[in-house]
Amino acid sequence: MRKIFFTSLVILGLISCQNNTKKSQVQTQKALEKPAFDHKAFKMKGMIIAKTTFKTFKSKISQTAEKGGLPAVVNFCHDNAHKITDSIGKSHHVIIRRTSHKLRNTDNKADIDEEAVINEYLKLQKEKKQMSPIVLKDTQGYVHFYAPIKTKPECMSCHGTPGKDIPENIYQMIIEKYPHDQATGFKVGDLRGIWDIKFLQNKS
Questions:
Q1: Does residue 114 share a domain with residue 24?
Q2: Burial tier of 115 (Cβ tally within 10 Å: 0-12, 13-18, 19+)
Q3: What pLDDT, on the 0 to 100 scale, is given for residue 37?
Q4: d(CA 112, CA 67)
Q5: Which of 49, 63, 122, 184 is most buried, by CB atoms within 10 Å?
Q6: What is the pLDDT of residues 77-134, one digit of tens each?
Q7: Are residue 42 and residue 23 in the same domain, yes or no?
Q8: What distance in Å separates the CA atoms of residue 88 and residue 72, rounded to the nearest whole number?
Q9: Containing domain of residue 124, as a range?
Q10: Contact in structure between 134 and 146 (CB atoms under 8 Å)
Q11: Which positions ≥6 away from 122 have C-beta within 8 Å?
Q12: Is the pTM of this model over 0.90?
């Protein structure tokens, strides 16, 4: 009887160890499969912030144009663009940047990560493929939301071809305010630049 009882304990112990080992393996596998951060959640947040910022710009530019025409719009963008992005960024605990391969304001020069994203979008544009938002982490652990900014018909008066889409007096105003301007010659639907929204929370 003792021998049978001892044998039963050994068998139960082995089964228990196997179950614990399998459970541990499953937990380890799940941990390995779990993403470093929730890409989908950050993508949704980034899209909301980008849309909010764009709508704010569009609304204020439309109001300015109604009151003072294109000259007033050029002055408004020069004086208020950074103020608007900074204000919206603070309310969402993010840093909002707009940059491009063809800059108007040299203060918006792309960093190495932004350049890589821009080049990828330009490649997709050349191949006539869809450009979708991207969520990545930088070397410091901050999450960034990147999205393409495409040229719309209403953008052509300041970013189209000088003398054709851009009136001469407006182009002269732009050159005076931005002596190193490169942000002309775009067509509707072209990649104008990108959004870079850096999340200041949830840093790992």
A1: no
A2: middle
A3: 77
A4: 40
A5: 49
A6: 999 999 999 999 999 999 999 999 999 999 999 999 999 999 999 999 999 999 999 9
A7: no
A8: 22
A9: 38-199
A10: yes
A11: 101, 191
A12: no
